[in-house]
Amino acid sequence: MAPRIVILLIAASLMCCIASDFDLIKLRTLSDLRGPSDGSLPPPPSADGTWRDIDYRSGCAIGRVEWPAVQHLDRTLAMARSCGVANATLAALDFWFKRDYRDEGCTDTESDRCCDMPDDTLWNSNWWWNRIGDPRAVRDPVRAKLPDMRAMTDSWARRDEFAALPTPPLGNRVYASSDYVIHRRPNYFVSVKAASERVAVSECINGENTLGHRLGDGVMFVNRPGAYDDVFPLWNWNALPGITVPASARGDNGGCATVSGKGDDDFVGGASDGHFGVFAMRSADGIRKAWFMFDDEIVVAIVPTSDGETMRSVLDSRVLRGDVTSSAYGDRAPMGIGRTRSSPWWIRHDSVTYIVPDNARGANTPVDVVTTVPRDGRWSRISTSEKTVTTKATFTAWFEHRGPSHYIIVPHTAQDPIATIDDVVVRQNSDAVQCIVNKRLGTVGIVFWEAWETASFPGWRVTANRPCVVLAVIEDADRHLRITIADPTHKLDRVSVSVTRESDGVSGTLAIDTSAHNGASHTVLWDGSASDSEMSSSGRPRPFLFH
């Protein structure tokens, strides 16, 4: 008898606990679902479940980006979270569900024409609204209240305990299939986007990004908080950050067809050892350009077309944040609002320093800096959005040149511009070879634009039998060379690189298997033991380094 009593007591206790837990869940759920208590509910709908002040036009009569009719769902959701308006909520929901468009055929496959729909159907010629936007407006609030979802998301408050990467990734990575490179350090993040014949320049859908025809021309973002927030309607789209284009480039482009098309050249890509990187592109204009990504600086080397046309290289174009200073006027003399043309060898803005080394050596290359007061930019300029306006002050800097040139970006002010110039040595910058040395790091970036060319730097000579990109790190007191090689064309089966150590004349050949045709980086350590012989590597994508 006693065991039965104990079991009954335990069972009763468990039931109390369960009831208590359910009450707690109910209380928490209801507290989240309750509507606003400040009287900010939408006005009640009419008897048919509609609101007279909402524009219910659908189909081709309304824009593809903004659809005022979705306000109906927003108001319905707000009422559903409140007490005492159940009938009005159901009427509004019934109105929508009875007219909601469900046939995917026309808007999914024939979006270029106006679909034949009943007059009272709620639909938009942009299929996103009916297949994603509307269902999500109903689904997400409900799903968030499900017990399983609540239980899973409770762990988010302790996400650091489950984080696979508790520290941010640091290093360099080339995304060879996307013609994209990322360079991360603790205090900055830089990205470069290009477009080869394998990759679309950008995306242009629903009339958005209509001016993005140069987004694959080597756009370089030096990312700091707020640097490019909502700046796009204010851009000169022939002067995007980091690009080099003919100075005569004017006007817009041919619309979405140009933006969505692929690039024009196969030589786009780079080599990365996970810490440093070299990225290169050859554009339709014949410009050969490379980014050499070291620790404290990114060196950008440019070889224009052979016809001597004047080129414009854009140092940056971003939101104006604080003062702009330069070597022309000094640290304590901020440049005023407007356009200034001078020949500085450094410019500083928002903790980023832009260095034109040739001017430090007396070249007197004019650099244009344009700063503005806050001004309005309309998103309708680059999309079909009709109403949205962004107001920002902007900073843009560029210089023009006819022959080969280079500049340096220092993404934080801790680095002395003079020390940067001393550290970086341009050994070659021609249409055959570009070779940049960072003396402080013992790191060398090389772009072989032509086959059987040689790059020379102190103590070493490197020759490649095919056009390729090479990153070399000098190790062990100038005895060893760690070489990373990539084929930007994705077409070569094999690349051979010959290395000569000038201190003793020892040489060797590194034969790299690139038959996967994926543009991947291959790293080999040459230690001098393979004199006049061959070594092979079947490299793999390099990971980020973590510190």
From TrEMBL:
Signal peptide: 1-19
A molecular function (GO) term: carbon-oxygen lyase activity, acting on polysaccharides
GO BP: any one term: carbohydrate metabolic process
UniProt superkingdom: Eukaryota
Keywords: Lyase, Signal
Residues covered by the Polysaccharide lyase family 8 central domain: 172-412
Region (Disordered): 528-547
Family classification: Belongs to the polysaccharide lyase 8 family.
Annotated protein name in UniProt: Chondroitin AC lyase
Organism lineage string: Eukaryota, Amoebozoa, Discosea, Longamoebia, Centramoebida
